[in-house]
Specification:
The structure is a single chain. This protein is α/β, with parallel strands linked by helices. It folds into two domains: about 5-75, Orthogonal Bundle (Methyltransferase, Methionine Synthase (B12-binding Domains), Chain A, domain 1); about 85-219, 3-Layer(aba) Sandwich (Rossmann fold), CATH 3.40.50.280. Helices cover about 55% and strands about 10% of the residues. The protein has eleven helices and five strands. The chain has a five-stranded parallel sheet, with helices on both faces. Strand 3 (about 145-150), helix 8 and strand 4 form a beta-alpha-beta unit.
Length: about 220
């Protein structure tokens, strides 16, 4: 494991928010925001999850680490936008996690990445029902709707959400991410209007190549 990953993970676990933020700011001299998320934050949180699964840390430890990670992401979120020089909006994007899904750090990183690329973003957090999400979606009318899901038994619910979103009159791009997208073959769900996002590298490529190019490549 990269030493930077382990160092940041233990700063999260120790509740050292100021030290974690300072360490992050130093690393951002070497990494872009997207590569930092992919190479450092994501494996750090996976490592913390493994410690919890093997009973080396408590639920309280895991919650503290998540809170400090959230703090760090929130503090650095504006810096990449300034660096990128995006003065005009690229569009609107909305993100949320499926009902009963509690993990949200990955979803928040994606949300902040869209902000860094000039999008107007509404981040609704985890554990949101389809009907409540549609209230905000119909008000905001985003060009991109990002949805996070983790557990395979939620697939029928995910299919229903995709169906409902696909029927929206302005035809938004529906991005599906989270553990389910990484761990399971969801190619059957992909379509002109639906994109499965495996990881942040995949998303970064989409930003670089544009919506149509990557959808055609992955369909």
């Amino acid at each position: 494991m990269d030493q930077h990953v382990k160092t940041l993970a233990h700063l999260f676990l120790d509740g050292e928010e100021d030290k974690a933020l300072h360490f992050t700011e130093e690393l951002l001299n070497e990494y872009s925001l997207m590569s930092f998320y992919e190479a450092i934050i994501t494996p750090a949180m996976y490592y913390i999850g493994e410690l919890w699964e093997t009973n080396q840390i408590s639920v309280a430890d895991e919650h503290l680490a998540t809170a400090i990670c959230d703090f760090v992401i929130s503090q650095i979120k504006g810096k990449e936008t300034v660096r990128s020089g995006n003065d005009q909006s690229s569009g609107r994007a909305l993100f949320f996690g499926m009902e009963e899904e509690q993990h949200y750090i990955g979803l928040k990183m994606v949300s902040e990445s869209f902000k860094a690329h000039g999008y107007q973003v509404r981040y609704l957090g985890p554990n949101l029902s389809l009907e409540h999400s549609l209230i905000q979606i119909n008000k905001f009318k985003p060009e991109v709707i990002g949805l996070s899901a983790a557990l395979s038994y939620r697939l029928p619910g995910l299919k229903e959400i995709i169906k409902r979103f696909s029927e929206l009159e302005w035809k938004p791009l529906i991005m599906i991410g989270g553990r389910m997208a990484r761990k399971f073959a969801l190619e059957e769900l992909e379509a002109d209007q639906v994109m499965i996002v495996k990881d942040l590298h995949h998303l970064s490529k989409w930003f670089e190549e544009g919506r149509e190019g990557l959808i055609n490549e992955t369909s």
